Each structure stands twice: as C-alpha cells, then as structure tokens.
Amino acid sequence: MSDPVASEPPTTDAASASKTAPWSAAPEAVLSAMESTADGLTSEEAERRLDEGGPNRLREIEHRSVAAILWEQFKSLVVLLLVAAMGVSFLFGQTVEGLAIAAVLALNTAIGFFTEWRAVRSMEALQELGQMTARVRRDGRERTVPAEELVPGDIVQLRGGDLVPADLRLIDADRLQVDESALTGESVPVDKDPAPVAPDAPLAERHSMACKGTAVAKGRGTGLVVGTGMETELGAISAMVETAGQNDTPLEQKLDQLGRRLVWLTLAIAGAVAGTGLLAGRDLLLMVETGIALAVAAIPEGLPIVATVALAHGMWVMLRRNAYIRRLSAVETLGATTLICTDKTGTLTENRMTARRMVLAGETVDLEPLPEDTPGRLRDAIDVGVLCNGAEWSPDAPDQHRGDPLEVALLQLGAQAGRPREALLEDTPVVRTVEFNRETKMMATYHEEESALRVAVKGAPEAVLEACDRVHAEDGSRPLDADERAEWLEKSDALAQDGLRVLALAQKTVGDAEASPYEGLGLLGLVGLLDPPREDVRPVIERCQEAGIRVVMVTGDHPETARTIAGAVGLRMNDHAVEQGEEFASIETLDEADRARLLRAAVFARVTPKQKLDLVDLYQASGQVVAMTGDGVNDAPALRSADIGVAMGQRGTDVAREAADMVLQDDAFSSIVAAISQGRIIFDNIRKFVVYLLSGNVGEILAVGAAAGFGFPLPLLPLQILYLNVLNDVFPALALGVGHGTGEVMDRPPRDPEEAVVTPYHWGLIGGYGVVIALTILGAFLAALQGFGMPVDQAVTVSFLTLSISRLLHVFNMRRPESGLLDNEISRTPYVWGALALCLGLLLLAVYWPPLATVLSVVPPGLNGWLLIGGASIVPLVLGQAYLGWRALWRSSA
C-alpha cells in the first residue's frame, strides 16, 4: 500500500465538498480540509479536538423513572373515574365501598406497571456498537486507542473482521470489502475504492466511505475520520430513533374514547337521577347513596384489568409461537394491520446466496437441483468457482463460514457437485493468488498441474469477457468474436433482470506463474446467484393478501433483485411495481400525484433509513395501520414510528429488536400471520367482553335509576353492585377475553382502522340487552316485594341474585350469530365454565356465609325466592338466543 501525500490546498468548491460530501472529493482534498496528514494527528491536537467535539459515542437517551411508569398507569379515564368513585365513597363515609374500589385499582395498577416495566432501550443498543477499539496513526506511528477517543482528522487502519469505529473517508484500500447490510440492507459485502463518487450518491453507493457500525468482510484499508458520534450516519439513525413518534396504538385510543363516553354517561345519569330526586323532595343522604350506587354501576371496574389480562394472554399465545411481544397493545394492533412494510434480506429471503443457474455455450443449466450427470464444461466451470475463491466453508460445519457470500455459495455448489475445495487443492495446489480489486473487477488463482499451471478466473462479466479470446463450447474451444461477446453480455443482462448476481468464469493454461492472468482467457460460462426466498414466505404472503392486508417490500438492495424476490414470494405487482429511493429523495417535496404513485407501489429499492421512515408516515397519513418488519440498524427509526414494529430475533440487530413492538424469535415471516390472526381474535374478544360488561352495567343503571325515579326502594345497594361487578365484570369477562376465537378471522378483510370498539350497532345491542336485564331485575324485585310480600332486605337479595345469575348466563349471548346454539366459541371455552362455577360458588358464599352476608346486606331468599330467581334469570338468555337466531337467518337471506 502507498500512503497518500497531502497536495495543495483545495479550491473553495473542493473544500466545501470535502466537508459536506467527503465521498465526492479527492482523498488529498479531504485530508487538507480536515487539517490532517497521512501520518495522522499529533496527540496534543487529538486531545484538543476531543475536548472541543466530545467523545465518539451516541447521545444517551433519558430513561423514564419508576414514578413516571407508575403514573402512566393512571392515565386511563376509566381508572380516573374509579379513583373519583373511591374518593366520593370515603368522603361520605362509605369506607367498605372505598376499600373495595381501592383493591380493584391496586390490582389493575400492579399488572399494568409490571407489563410496561421494560422501557424501549433503542439508544442503549446503538451505544453498544460504539464500545470498541481502533488502530490509528498518531505522532507518525500506529497505536490502539478506545474508539470513543477518535476525532475528525484521525487516520484509522482497517483489517478484515474489524468493526468500523467512525465514518471514514477511505484514502487507501486493498481488496477492501465492507458488510453494510445492517445499515443499508445490501445483502453482500460492498467493494470499497478511494475514488470519489457523485455528491448525491445514495448511502449504498458511497464506495469511498466506510461508515460507523459496519464490518470489514475482508481486505484492508486506511481511512480518514470525517464524522464521529452523532455526526455519523449511525448517529443520524440514532437521532431518528430518538425523535420518531411512538403514538398510542389504535386499541389504546379506542379504549380511551370509550372511557371518555363513560365519564359523561356516568355524570349525566347520576346528575339527572339525583337532581330529579331532590326536586321531588327525596332525602339528601338517600340521593347521595343513590348517586354512589349509579356511579359504581356505571363504571366497568373490570374493563382495565380484563383488557390488560386479555392482551397479556395474547402475548403468551404468541410467545409459544416464537413471537415475543414487547408491548401488550401490539397484539391487538396487529389485528388491525392493513399494510406490512417488509425488508427483503433475511426477512423474505434466507440471507444466504445460492448458485441458481449456469449459462454455458449453447445451453443453460438449472443448478437447483444439480444435474446428476455433470458434463465436462459444467464441471470445469464449477471447479473454477471453487478454486478462484477466498471464502472459508466446510460441509462439516455448514453454518460456520467466512468471506463473501457469493464465494461461499460457489464452495457449496462445488460440494454438491462432488468437487470440494480441499480435494481440488490437493490435486491442484495453489501457487499464486491475484486478489479481486475494483479496477480489474476480477480475481485469479494459479494452480499446479502435471506439466503446466492452470489459471482460474472469475469476475464481472464485462471484465472477464473483455479478457477472453475464445470460448469453451461442446465441440471444443473456438474463437470469441465481437458479435458473440455482445451476445454473452445480453445473456448476462438477462440473468441480472431475473434478479441474479452474475459472475463470469474463465480459465487458461500457462507455463509461468508470473504470466499475466487477465489476457488470452477461455470463457467457460456465466453463473447466476440468488439469495433465495424463505420457503414458508409465499403462502404466508398469499394468506395476508387474501385477508385484505397489503405487503410492500422496502429494501436497500438492487431494484432487479428486489423485483425478482417480490415475484418469487407472490407479492401482487402493478404497473408501478418498483420505485427507487433516488426517484423520491424527499417525500415532503412530492406532489399529490407522486404520492399516489408511491402508495400504489409494491416494491421500494435503494431506500435510505430516512425514506423508510417517510414511507411509514406516508402510509399512516393515508389511513393505513402499518406494521414494519426489519432486522438492521437502518430499520430502527421506521420500526419505532410504525404502528407495529416487527424485528427479526435471530438475524436482527439489538437496535432493531429494542425499537420494535414485537420480535420474531424464529425470524419466520409466517409468525406475522399467526400474530395478525391472534390480534383479530383479541379484538373480537375485547369487543365481546366490552358489550358484556356494558350491557350488564346499563341494566344496573336503568334498574336503580327507575327505582329511584318512581320512589321505590333501591333494588341494589352500592356494595352489592360493586361485589357483583367484581364477579361478573372480571371472571366471565376474563373468560371471554382469553377465548380461542374461530377459524374465519382471516377470511375477512381488516376492519376499518377508525372503527370504534363499540360501534353504533353495538351501542344498540348494549342498550337492548341492558333494558332486558333491567326489566328482569325490577320484575323480580317487585314480584318479591309485592307479589310474595317479602321484606325489603329479602326482596333486595332476590334482585341481587337475579342480576348476578342472569348476567352469568348472559355470557352465552356473546357468541357469533352464525355459530351453533350449543356448540360455539363461547361454549367451547373451558374458562367460561370455570368462571361460571366460581361465580356461583361466591354467590352462595355471599348469601350463606354470615360475615360476608352482613357486609353485603343480603339474607337467604328461601324456596320461593330461589324459584323466582331461577325463572327470571333465564329471560335475558332466552331473548338473547332468539335474537341471535333471527340475526343469523337475516344475514343468510341477505
């Protein structure tokens, strides 16, 4: 390697380019602009710049305190309403009621606090990438320093296996290749060259730069530090992760809207009844007691805890399917997903190259599967790919390999053909190696044979073809003229259009190891390699699309490669199938027509991290609920900003995993469909128990309000309502919340993202069921009080038990109308039967265990009372089942 020499001071334009786009200026100009030399900085100057610019690390993010996490548990309006009801109870001396509400609040807060304990730590994961050392030139000699102490102007040495410690402008490179997949999405290492590139070159094409957080695959190089800490490309991504919005999920927003309605509903009903009573001359204390009873009846105490537990159950279901949920609400939000933005490399593909096709003179050979009878020319071509190779791979340890994935694939092809590298080298030992470089775009190895040296060459088709003067055909070697050379270039283009990476293979025989490798070659053929799609991806994507969910590929890879993979995995393409990042550098500047074009695209290629984030925002602005998958550092901002960020657990970086809401531990795209299915089931379950909770509570409100309005004794006391709400609002509702759902959830399109948990139809259903339950309670109460002449406490016990048992049976009204009367998703849930048995036991305990009976003011109802309770309690069930049967008939006829 030769060290560059500082030249004359650059011109004004060159100096500007050296600082704003160092990849576009000559190395000498960048050195001058950074006030550095090829021998590096002095220790004193480096220390001064470190004090001035700060250490080479990413900015730390401020973590939420325990108190802040705890406070977040009280932001729900339903919880605040419970707090208000608890305060009113204590204020008016209703200590038992207050303590009971406090117990419910404590349970809900504990569950919420511990499930939200794991705060997002994306910035910590990013900072871990900076904990390394670097070899720098200082004071004219090489030394090793902590990477945090690097400053702009330092000269850094790179070797194979190194992590790049800062953003470097390369000033020298010897066969240098850098793995930038985590940063750009490029699936294979990128060749580096100090030659300047265009100022507007996208990140993936800045071959004169090596960026912080990437890895040196092979070769060596020297680079000038031009960016440290937050001034690096990694730092820019870090800033986007830090500032990317993480909005409330649709479920959180909908439950908050429901809570707001309940607040106004409770205040309106309590105020109206209390005001009417006072105007009618009713006792003030009686109206206070009635107001508390109405408030307690209106508040669905079980809603926060049941929603939390239902989502937690969904989390455990997904964990058993290798999907780790980092936010509970992510389970439901996946069910509302309308669009999935997915990365390509490692997500849709296996992240490993395989040789797919070999083009020989006069024939094309499909290498999957490899022909059993390998013809001579094909065998020679495979041998060249194996011999002219710098990778390390063994069939004894196939998952352990080093080097360029393209070369690893050629070694694997050789093993499949019975031509392993070790055996070939034993027969034809290597004498000389000419490494690949960007100027020749070729690599050559010399191998000892019986009486001569065999030269094996591989490289870019246009370069190898230029070095060939003959071609090996089936009937022997023949001259390669200009017309046939053009035909071979067309064959190469055809392979590239199929998304394959193309290498040309050639050989010759020489007598001297010093003979030039790249002249007088005989062309053997072309080999096309592909990072294959994962086997389980295509049916999964088809299932998504059948369920009305769009799948869009967003990758930093080559457009033709992206197009081919999209077709292989079954993405629905259109006239605007592939958009390139360079064609929409800034989405903010696009007009409506261009935005509409982007919204129709199925594949985005050569996309930068900022553009990924912009695309998520664009889709969200169009009303989509967006799930974003990814595994690299470059995916982190979009993962965080999306409605659901889905990271790969095995191939994914720590940054991606910590930024995501869900981590696929098996990296299987199929787990996303399982998650979406579970999310839809969770939403259905949440809707069922919300309807169940509110219809029962409305029945309580109407019964108490009607009794107060007509001057009757209260059929239910506040503590009785709270006791029943804890029983009926928690245990049966929990059973509904953890139901397994039905198989048709993926046979329908996504629901409208704006659709509320409780739609107008469901409010009507809640009102209808509530009226039936209220009339049942009042009918049983008045029958006991007037028909059977029972004392008030016994009549209240009848209404208390009628309400509870009728609500327990009401759980069977939550089935889908199309399901069977006896065999349905409710009756098949064992938790429902367990909840019913538990609640009936606790009801009997409340009646026949004196301490609890005294607190609740209930007495044994007697035989007549039990007969009345049994007859009245089945009324809501019978009417509900009749309605469901009618609705099923109406739907089938429609």
From TrEMBL:
Biased composition annotated in UniProt, kind: Basic and acidic residues: 45-54
Residue ranges of domain Cation-transporting P-type ATPase N-terminal in the record: 21-94
Keywords of the record: ATP-binding, Cell membrane, Magnesium, Membrane, Nucleotide-binding, Phosphoprotein, Translocase, Transmembrane, Transmembrane helix
SUPFAM superfamilies per record: Calcium ATPase, transduction domain A (SSF81653), Calcium ATPase, transmembrane domain M (SSF81665), HAD-like (SSF56784), Metal cation-transporting ATPase, ATP-binding domain N (SSF81660)
Gene3D superfamilies to which the protein is assigned, alphabetical: Calcium-transporting ATPase, cytoplasmic domain N, Calcium-transporting ATPase, cytoplasmic transduction domain A, Calcium-transporting ATPase, transmembrane domain, HAD superfamily/HAD-like
Subcellular location: Cell membrane
Pfam family name, one: Hydrolase_3
Biased composition (Polar residues): 9-21
PROSITE patterns xref list: ATPASE_E1_E2
Annotated Gene Ontology cellular component terms: plasma membrane
Keyword Membrane belongs to the record: yes
SMART domains with a match to the protein in the record: Cation_ATPase_N
Annotated spans, Disordered: 1-54
Transmembrane segments: 74-92, 98-117, 262-280, 292-319, 689-710, 722-742, 763-785, 791-810, 831-851, 863-886
GO molecular function: ATP binding; ATP hydrolysis activity
Assigned protein family: Belongs to the cation transport ATPase (P-type) (TC 3.A.3) family. Type IIA subfamily.
PANTHER family associated with the record: CATION TRANSPORTING ATPASE, SODIUM/POTASSIUM-TRANSPORTING ATPASE SUBUNIT ALPHA
Protein's UniProt name: Ca2+-transporting ATPase
Species in which this protein is naturally found: Salinibacter ruber
Taxonomic classification: Bacteria, Pseudomonadati, Rhodothermota, Rhodothermia, Rhodothermales
